[in-house]
C-alpha cells in the first residue's frame, strides 16, 4: 500500500463502510424496488435518477445521457444512462465503476416479492439484488465512504449506471463508449461490479458467434415426397455431421483462459432453435407438403485461441462438403452477431490493486477467472480501446436470473471495502 493509503487511513475507511451498513441495505432496496425489467427496458430514468441525485448530494457532477437513435431507444422506453464524476484535489488517473441498471424478468417460482427488497438475516432478496444492483450499491458506498472520510486522492472517481446489458448493451455501455466515455484520458481503470463472488476477479470472457443456417428444399405433395426435396432431411444430415465430427473436436479444444465453470474451458456450440415446414403455433390439421426450408440458430462460444473466421469456416466446410456429396443440397448462412473474446492481463494495474485489497481485507489470494458468456467489458475493450478493465463485485453468479435471487449483505460490505481500497491504491500517485 502506498503512503496515501497507509493503514490508519484504511482503518478509518473500513470503519466508515461498516457504519454505512444500514444505508447500503436501504440503497440496494431502493434500487431493487424500481423494476427496470429488460426487455422492454422499463423505468430506466427513475433508476438513473436515484443513483444520480444521491451522488450529486455527495458532490458528483451528473450527466443523464439518453442514447437517442440507439438500438432499443424510443419515447416509450427511453434508454437513459447516468454518469457521475467527482474530481480529486489534484490531477491524476480516473477509476470508473460501471453497473448495469437493467434486470431480467422475475419469472416464476418466487417465495418473496421479487421487487420488495426483503431482508432475512444476512440476505437481501429481489430481482437484481445479485445481478447487479447489490454491486452498484456497494460501489456507491465505497466512493461515498472515501469522500465522507475526506481521504485525499488524485484524479477522479466515476460511477455510471447503464442500460440494456442483458440485451447486448448497445444503448448503454456501447453507446457511451462510442462517445468517448470509456476511453483514456477520461477514464483509465474500470471495475464492473458484476456478481463474481468477493474473492474472485473476472479478467474477461469467451467470444460469441450467433448465426442462422437455412437448408433449402423443393416443395411437393407429402404423399409423393420423392418428387420434392426435404429441407428438414438435409438439416438432419448437417446435424449428424456436427454431432459426429464437430462436437468431439470442440470438446477436445481447450483454452488457457481461466474460464469458470470448468466445462466452459472447451469450445461450445448450442442449437438455440430449429424450425422447418408447417408454421409453429398453428393447431389445425397440416397440409401435406415437403418442407422447402429449415432454419437453425447456432450459438457458438469460442476461445481466445480461436478466430471468428476459423469458427465460421468449420461450419461452412461441413455444409460445403454436404453440398458436394448430395444432389440438391442447398443452404445459406447469415451472421447474426459476433463478439470477440477479451481478457485483461493478470498484471494490469486494476487487477494488481484488487489482488492487494482482497489479500488485505479477506486474507486470501484472489482467484482470477473468466466468464463463459459476455458482458459489457467487450464494449470497453473494443469500442473504448481501454484494456484495464475487470468485473469484480458481490453476489454468487449462479443466483443471477433465478427465482429468489439474493445478495449477502456481508459480501456487499466486504466488496465495498475492496473497491474503496483498490481505488485509493490506483489514485494514490
Ligand atoms: Zn449482470
TrEMBL record:
Keyword match Metal-binding: yes
Location of the Peptidase M20 dimerisation domain: 204-325
InterPro entries noted in UniProt: ArgE/DapE, Bact_exopeptidase_dim_dom, Peptidase_M20, Peptidase_M20_dimer, Peptidase_M20A
Signal peptide residues on this chain, from the entry's feature table: none
Transmembrane segments: none
UniProt cofactor(s): Zn(2+); Co(2+)
Superkingdom of the organism of origin: Bacteria
Keywords from the named record: Cobalt, Hydrolase, Metal-binding, Zinc
Family, per entry: Belongs to the peptidase M20A family.
Protein name in UniProt: Acetylornithine deacetylase/succinyl-diaminopimelate desuccinylase family protein
The organism of origin for this protein: Lacibacterium aquatile
Amino acid at each position: 500500500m502506498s503512503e496515501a493509503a497507509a493503514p490508519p487511513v484504511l482503518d478509518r475507511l473500513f470503519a466508515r463502510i461498516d457504519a454505512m451498513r444500514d444505508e447500503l441495505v436501504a440503497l440496494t432496496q431502493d434500487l431493487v424496488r424500481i423494476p427496470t425489467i429488460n426487455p422492454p427496458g422499463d423505468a430506466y430514468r427513475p433508476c438513473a435518477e436515484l443513483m444520480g441525485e444521491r451522488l450529486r448530494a455527495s458532490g458528483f457532477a451528473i450527466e443523464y445521457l439518453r442514447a437517442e437513435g440507439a438500438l432499443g431507444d424510443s419515447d416509450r422506453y427511453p434508454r437513459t444512462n447516468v454518469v457521475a464524476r467527482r474530481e480529486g484535489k489534484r490531477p491524476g488517473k480516473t477509476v470508473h465503476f460501471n453497473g448495469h441498471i437493467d434486470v431480467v424478468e422475475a419469472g416464476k417460482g418466487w417465495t418473496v416479492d421479487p421487487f420488495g427488497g426483503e431482508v432475512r438475516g444476512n440476505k437481501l432478496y429481489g430481482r437484481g439484488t445479485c445481478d447487479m444492483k447489490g454491486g452498484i450499491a456497494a460501489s456507491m458506498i465505497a466512493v461515498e465512504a472515501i469522500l465522507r472520510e475526506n481521504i485525499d486522492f488524485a484524479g477522479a472517481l466515476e460511477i455510471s449506471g447503464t442500460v440494456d446489458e442483458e440485451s447486448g448493451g448497445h444503448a448503454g455501455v456501447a453507446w457511451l463508449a462510442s462517445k468517448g466515455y470509456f476511453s483514456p484520458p477520461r477514464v483509465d481503470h474500470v471495475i464492473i461490479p458484476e456478481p463474481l463472488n468477493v474473492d474472485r476477479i473476472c479478467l474477461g470472457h469467451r467470444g460469441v458467434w450467433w448465426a442462422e443456417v437455412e437448408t433449402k428444399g423443393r416443395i411437393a405433395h407429402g404423399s409423393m415426397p420423392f418428387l420434392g426435396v426435404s429441407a428438414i432431411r438435409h438439416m438432419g444430415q448437417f446435424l449428424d455431421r456436427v454431432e459426429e465430427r464437430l462436437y468431439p473436436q470442440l470438446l477436445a479444444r481447450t483454452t488457457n483462459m481461466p474460464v469458470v465453470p470448468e466445462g466452459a474451458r472447451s469450445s461450445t456450440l448450442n442449437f438455440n432453435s430449429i424450425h422447418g415446414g408447417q408454421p409453429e403455433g398453428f393447431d389445425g390439421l397440416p397440409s401435406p407438403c415437403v418442407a422447402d426450408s429449415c432454419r437453425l440458430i447456432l450459438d457458438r462460444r469460442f476461445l481466445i485461441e480461436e478466430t471468428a473466421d476459423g469458427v465460421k469456416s468449420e461450419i461452412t466446410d461441413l455444409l460445403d462438403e454436404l453440398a458436394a456429396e448430395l444432389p440438391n443440397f442447398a443452404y445459406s448462412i447469415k451472421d447474426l452477431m459476433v463478439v470477440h473474446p477479451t481478457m485483461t492481463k493478470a498484471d494490469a494495474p486494476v487487477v494488481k490493486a484488487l489482488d492487494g485489497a482482497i489479500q488485505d481485507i479477506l486474507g486470501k489470494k484472489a482467484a482470477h477467472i473468466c466468464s463463459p458468456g459476455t458482458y459489457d467489458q467487450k464494449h470497453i475493450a473494443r469500442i473504448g480501446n481501454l484494456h484495464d478493465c475487470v468485473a469484480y463485485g458481490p453476489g454468487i453468479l449462479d443466483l443471477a436470473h433465478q427465482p429468489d435471487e439474493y445478495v449477502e449483505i456481508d459480501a456487499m460490505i466486504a466488496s465495498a471495502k475492496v473497491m474503496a481500497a483498490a481505488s485509493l491504491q490506483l489514485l494514490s500517485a
